[in-house]
Specification:
Serine Threonine Protein Phosphatase 5, Tetratricopeptide repeat
Amino acid sequence: MASSRRSTRWLLLAALALPLPAPAADYVDEAACAACHPAQQQAWAASQHARAMQPATPATVLGDFSGARSRHDGVTARAYRRDGKYLMETDGPDGKPASFEVKYAFGLEPLQQYLAELPGGRLQALRLAWDVRQGKWFRLYPQEKHLDHRHPLHWTRAAQNANSNCAVCHTTAMRKNYVADGRRFETRWASLGVTCQACHGAASAHMEWAASEPRPAAGKGFSANLSGPAQLDSCAPCHAMRTQLLAAPEPGAPLLDQYLPMLLDEGRYRADGQQQDEVFIYASWLQTRMHAAGVRCGDCHEAHGGKLRAPGNAVCVTCHNATGPAAGSHVDTRGLQRKDYDSAQHHFHRPGTRGSACVDCHAPTTSYMVVDPRHDHSFRIPRPDLTAAIGTPNACNSCHAKRDAAWAQAQIVRWYGKPAAQKPHYGLALAAGRNAAPGAADGLLALAADVTQPAIVRATALNLLRRYPGRDAWALYRQSLGDADPLVRRVAALGLEALPPRNRIGPLTPLLDDPRRAVRIEAARLLAAAALPDSTRSSFQRAFDEYLQAQNENAERPTAQLALGDVHAARGDSVRAEAAYREAIALEPGFVPAYANLAELFRSSGREDAALQLLRKGMQAAPGQAGLHEALALALVRRGDKPAALRLLQRATRLANAQAHTYYLCALLLHDSGRETDARSMLATALHKHGGDRDLLLIQAAYQRQAGDLRGAGLTLARLAAINPHDPALSQRQQETKP
């Protein structure tokens, strides 16, 4: 029926002599590609892209399935074959031993993982992986103890689900197809592995173009233009930490139209932007001067085979040499100095030894998944001075581990001179912002406003600035809403989240029609509770529908359900909000934010008993979460049981995941119960652990003033002023502490 309607529409358009829209291209069998592109196909066939995910067969499985055993955490795993199938005997989703068929070999080198299929179409990555270089099984997450079936990193849990997390980058045109009704996947793909169409787009129109006689000079039928700046947008989806925003992304389309990439977030990146967690390449590359100059992935990497275009240092000295760069016309080479970089006069190491390769110092490796060393693509100059100042690692001491940063810095000054070794670096401002150190607010304001810095750095600074309120911050958020980079525009919108919904309307309404989806949907979320004028409602509805689409595309994730619950609650739709929060809890029984927000929804509608019952259930599911202790304590306070609430909060402060807010609430209850000395002692402990947290400093100053300690209160507020002199709470509080 659908195809009949489509045919009728096309006939009507033709009869009316209207221009016919180009039909959407389809994914096709690529067997014919080699006929016209033999060299590219040959290079691709030998690449890891080609074999990124394969059916488990004797030709694809590299691991030892001859009955090899491995024992961890009291569980014996056995890899074996039976009736032509590859099987892994291990603990299953219920903790009981069982055998699971390996459906796919995942990856190629330096390790290979194996996917088993569980009910509901779930492809799960098994706990054991094969070390290709050492020829042995090894356990992923070896640092985790007691990783049983209840642990979030157990192979049967959501974190190891390939449908949701990793298969999309090991296949071509994968559609996750999560069905919320039944919590199952009906995942499909055009083909296994990263094929031609994964980067170039669906090829049916190109095949028609290739078969036509004569071939049209223009329009070869591919949607993705990989020869220009869009090349990075084609590579980034699989080489970035990002969230997918729609079901069927188009290869080569602008990244923020289809994905939301991660910033230089704490725990993922060091304060100076070096990779820390498994973050892949994109955000590191955005920090480089090479990216700013127009260098593309394909300038260094051969696109079809993935290998470097030249061995060793040769790929670097293509541009960094004494005679002049041989870069393409799209690269701005004006800032390059002509000197012999591939020499001991530059790197001061004996040729052929560690330290003589460009990447040793400028792109050091960090190992992920136990055995997989990956180069940091931020291509930075080693900075031992930053190691001394903010604790970030440097390439010099990664080799010379017995020496300290001062020694390494002295060597750099001796070799390259003091000015080159002490250039200002954004890591200082980001570190101060993360740690609420003196100068944090002004450092972030200056960094976020400095358009000479990489956009991802400015966006990260803007995001941290949300911790430091003040007029200058509000002004910068508003100014940055018009920034040329969508990463910056989106975070600028986030900066206005602290405003009442009615005050967001003026500045955020233009973003509802932003060219990039990631920006539009953030504006729609922030305006969801606002009473918008009629003139903006259609733009809002389009962007809001895109926001809902993005969350529903990730409906198997509790974070997406939480986001749906929050936005429905903001719009007053308590029925949908409750359903989304409950779904988040069903997906992850220990997901603290869903319990807290659902309890708040109950409280706001007068259902205090339901809130209390829910939070107690959450405590049973996640007894070690300080956030649930906080939420339950507040519910008990509303019930008038302050002693029980205080006991909960005191217990929460002893948990490893206790935050500054946990101590803040505990100090409030201690003070309220007449234990002023204990409250001040609690705050002193909290400030020692959590630095210059704004709320802790303000309440400490208030308690000091109440106790008559005006000098102590003044010193506390002076500490806050050193961190953020623009804090709106300062002027009145400082007046109150004057004798």
